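Consider the tokenized backbone below.
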């Protein structure tokens, strides 16, 4: 489903992502784990086709047989949300405070040049376990967990093949976070999506992911089945990450 070959991202001063390779199969969750600054979000941003012009990039990102690195901005805009969608760490930043949730949903359909589909939204509100009345609310009337459910609903509107989650639970308490994790897992199974799940937390990755990739300073230093890496990490860095996630 998603294949990344030799992805390299650099600024004028340094290499930020160093020729990494990985793939995510259909219905599979790959977790990227690494410290702050290791290049996780840049990798996700590259897949979404949103890297700033100021960075140099090379390599291939193949999604549904198209190389995103070679598509024009307009072509990428067409597949964003429809073939790939992203959810972020802080749901408060993803919504506009002056519009109701419903109005924001209508706006998304408008941008996508599609008719507003209330049936699809009803189904999704049910899937993310929120009452329909919430559509009339403003984002500041919702809790962090509820908002993240709305953001997930928005990401699922057009049934993307790839969902990228960049630390989607860090702004939430652990119980709410776990519910969000289970929701993502269920949606993945229902829609047969590929999921790229970015986190600092190896323990969390073991719960959600099929495969885990450990990143350090732009390099992938360990890559394999989540259970194997969790139970017998090979690199000292991975062992340290595991210790850190136990607190
Ligand atoms: N537009 C940019 N120009 C120059 N350097 C950048 C740019 N964006 C990111 N970087 C640098 O690239 C490195 C990797 O950043 P990235 O955001 O991918 O880290 P991360 O692994 O997601 O970290 P965190 O866990 O804190 O989110 C960092 O050193 C960052 O300062
Ligand atoms: Mg990041």
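A designed sequence for it:
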């Amino acid at each position: 489903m998603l294949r990344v070959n030799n992805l390299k991202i650099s600024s004028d001063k340094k290499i930020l992502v160093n020729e990494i390779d990985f793939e995510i199969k259909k219905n599979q969750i790959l977790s990227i784990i690494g410290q702050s600054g290791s290049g996780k979000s840049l990798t996700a941003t590259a897949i979404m086709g949103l890297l700033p012009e100021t960075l140099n990039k090379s390599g291939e990102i193949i999604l549904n047989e198209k190389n995103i690195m070679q598509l024009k901005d307009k072509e990428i805009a067409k597949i964003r949300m429809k073939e790939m969608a992203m959810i972020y760490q802080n749901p408060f930043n993803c919504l506009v405070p002056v519009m109701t949730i419903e109005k924001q949903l209508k706006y998304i359909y408008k941008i996508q040049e599609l008719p507003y589909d209330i049936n699809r939204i009803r189904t999704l509100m049910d899937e993310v376990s929120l009452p329909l009345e919430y559509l009339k609310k403003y984002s500041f009337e919702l809790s962090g967990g509820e908002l993240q459910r709305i953001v997930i609903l928005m990401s699922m509107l057009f049934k993307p093949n790839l969902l990228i989650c960049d630390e989607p639970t860090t702004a939430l308490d652990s119980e709410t976070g776990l519910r969000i994790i289970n929701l993502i897992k269920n949606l993945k199974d229902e829609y047969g999506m590929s999921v790229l799940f970015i986190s600092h937390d190896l323990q969390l990755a073991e719960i959600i992911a099929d495969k885990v990739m450990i990143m350090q300073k732009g390099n992938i230093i360990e890559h394999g089945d989540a259970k194997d890496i969790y139970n017998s990490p090979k690199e000292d860095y991975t062992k340290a990450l595991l210790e850190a996630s136990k607190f």
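The chain has one domain: 2-89+161-245.
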